[in-house]
Amino acid sequence: MSQQGVPMPKALARPAFSSRGERLIGQEMFRVLDRAQALERQGHRIYHLELGNPRIPPPVKILEAAINELQAKHVGYAPMAGLQELRTAVAERYASLIGKPIAPSQVVISPANMLIHQFLDITCNPGDRVVLFTPAFPSYWAAAAHLELEVMPVTLPSRDGFRLSRLSIDVALAAKPKAIIVNSANNPTGAVYEPAVLQELAARCGQAGIWLLSDETYADLTFDGSHVSLAAPQVGHVVAMSSFSKVLSIPGFRTGYALAHEAVVAKLALSNSTLYSCLPGFTQSGCIAGLSVLDAYAAEVRARNQRLIATCHDRLTQSGLLHGHHPEAGFYLFVDITGTGLDDMTFCRRLLEEQHTAVTPGRCFGEAYASHIRLAVCGLEEDVLEGVSRTIAFAQKLGGCRVQAA
């Protein structure tokens, strides 16, 4: 009853979500970010190692181009497949990389994270099987779950540096999946797969009638400067995708791209139109400018990443409790925390609460990795080193307590 004696209406039961709605799982690193930002609002200084969020300035040309577009009031709709100038620039770059002609009609512009979902959406039906080589990027799991697909993980052994092998390909093909996703250079391990093995995977997928998504987001960040791509738009079953986010330090632009057969690109463009109409033209103009300086800028980023990765890896190894494969690319460290006696979720929660350092639980990359965490070491150097130091101190405290308890 209200204060006036008028009966209050009964709360209505909410309608049921769809099966797809119920299967939304998102990405755990963003939940970690939410918790970290809640602590920041309380006045705590947080060291962010959870997201691959480069905090170094992007090329000035990118910002100038985007600002010029805004100042010119170019804020209308863009083509659903992306600006023709950007598609042309991407096509020309990859034609140079692979030594084969690529047409702009074989390129589509879309957020890389979205492209993962779009690829699975246009190639798989509910109940179809998808193979992931694990550890695997969380968006693969999330997209497959949302689309009601069966995921079969094929584990890449840590003793082999988490590299793809012909035996792993045999296991993947024996599962008779509708699609396979391969990620080199890899997130979270930083492993770079042999070109011959990748080419064999692509060829055998074609022979077996299996779709293949090659996620090459970190290909420009291999420490030796190599860039291996499976882009082959004349081949109908392979989709190669990448992003400007990491290599140009502009994750907020949400601009990526895929190279594929024209028929596949047409479907992805329709998906763009259906899901979000188009990307902003001003961010795409920034990326056009970024392509003109990408190679020089990427070389600087690689050098910085390699130096910082080496320093952090050495410190983690010297801790005596934390261990991990030395990456060959990118800016992640996939760390085994078995020696601490905690599982990944507990370790990450307590590390954030007690040491104000945010990292990503390993099981986000596959249930087999509950004894791992991922550290993103792409922020400001002093923040990264402090976050790593706090992670080590927390692990050593746990190890010491565990020994005393025994």
Strand-helix topology:
Layout: H1 19-22, H2 28-41, E1 47-48, H3 60-71, H4 84-98, E2 107-110, H5 112-123, E3 129-134, H6 138-146, E4 150-155, H7 166-174, E5 179-183, H8 195-208, E6 211-215, E7 238-243, E8 256-259, H9 262-275, H10 281-291, H11 294-318, E9 332-336, H12 344-355, E10 357-358, E11 360-361, E12 372-376, H13 381-405
Parallel strand pairs: 1-10, 3-4, 3-5, 5-6, 6-7
Antiparallel strand pairs: 2-8, 7-8, 9-12, 11-12
Helix pairs in contact: 3-10, 4-10, 5-6, 5-9, 11-13
How is the quaternary structure best described?
Answer: single chain
Name the CATH class of the largest domain: Alpha Beta
Report helical residue fraction. 40-55%
What is the 3D form? globular
Given the helix and strand composition, which structural class is it?
alpha/beta
* Alpha plus pi helix count: 13
Radius of gyration from the CA trace? 22 Å
Number of separate strands = 12
Beta-strand content bin = 5-15%
- The CATH superfamily of the largest domain is identified as Type I PLP-dependent aspartate aminotransferase-like (Major domain)
- At the third CATH level, what is the topology name of the largest domain? Aspartate Aminotransferase, domain 2
The residue ranges in which pLDDT falls below 50 over 5 or more consecutive positions are 401-406
Distance between the termini: 60 Å
Number of domains: 2
- Largest sheet, order of strands side by side? 2-8-7-6-5-3-4
Overall average residue pLDDT: 93
What is the ordering of alpha helices and beta strands?
A: HHEHHEHEHEHEHEEEHHHEHEEEH
